[in-house]
Design a protein that fits this description.
This protein has 220 residues and is of the alpha+beta class. 30% of the residues lie in helices and 26% in strands. It contains five helices and eight strands. It has an eight-stranded mixed β-sheet.
Length: 220
């Protein structure tokens, strides 16, 4: 809220760095869903995890730095569900394991959306996960490899398999950078893709998840 207020008072463009929503592979998955290639979507699963060396003072483990799996990488499973399901949440339940420094070392969320789709989302900093996302419909499945930075989308239906690959050598940040450049050239202050409301809603959801897990930082 403070960042939004500053941007508005200074007439600046402000965009959350949610680069996953701009990746060609993720956009292709969205296109397949809209086209009905996998029928009616029923489930989504997304896991995001890695195992850094333990350091109580690092941004991953230090509660004074708002550390923990949820705020570090847990936004990605929530964001991919937000982007591909495109529906309000009806019910959400979450659990998390609070480690020796008091932060959530791993967590899991079960989400029911208003349109009837269910999502299982998890993140962690204690083990390497596959980091793939699966979108399951009545007629097929879409898999996004390393979904948060995906360069490959795989569509599997009874008719066969279709693979989309982003062959550009870049890491992927460039796509949202191009978007922001266009906003600046057009004199716009807010992104229609990553709107202020979507960013606000993401933070509100993570605050609700933290509350349910019992995670509170020393400075709060």
């Amino acid at each position: 809220e403070e960042a939004l207020e500053i941007a508005r008072s200074k007439d600046l463009c402000l965009v959350e760095a949610m680069w996953t929503w701009f990746l060609p592979a993720v956009l292709k998955a969205k296109q397949w869903i809209v086209e009905g290639r996998i029928g009616e979507v029923r489930f989504l699963r997304a896991d995001c995890g890695f195992k850094p060396e333990f350091n109580a003072e690092s941004r991953v483990y230090n509660p004074n730095l708002a550390a923990g799996a949820l705020l570090d990488i847990g936004i990605y499973p929530l964001a991919i569900a937000e982007f591909l399901i495109d529906s309000d949440i009806k019910n959400m339940r979450s659990v998390g394991y609070l480690g020796s420094t008091g932060i959530d070392e791993y967590n899991a969320m079960s989400v029911e959306y208003q349109n009837g789709i269910f999502a299982q989302l998890s993140s962690g900093v204690v083990s390497d996960l596959h980091n793939d996302a699966y979108i399951i419909g009545t007629k097929g499945i879409i898999r996004l490899e390393n979904f948060w930075m995906s360069k490959k989308a795989i569509l599997e239906t009874p008719a066969g398999k279709e693979i989309f690959e982003d062959e550009l050598p870049c890491h992927g940040y460039n796509y949202e950078t191009d978007h922001v450049n266009e906003l600046l050239l057009q004199g716009k202050k807010e992104s229609p893709v990553v709107s202020f409301e979507k960013s606000r809603r993401s933070m509100q959801r993570m605050d609700a998840i933290r509350k349910e897990m019992g995670l509170k930082y020393p400075f709060e």
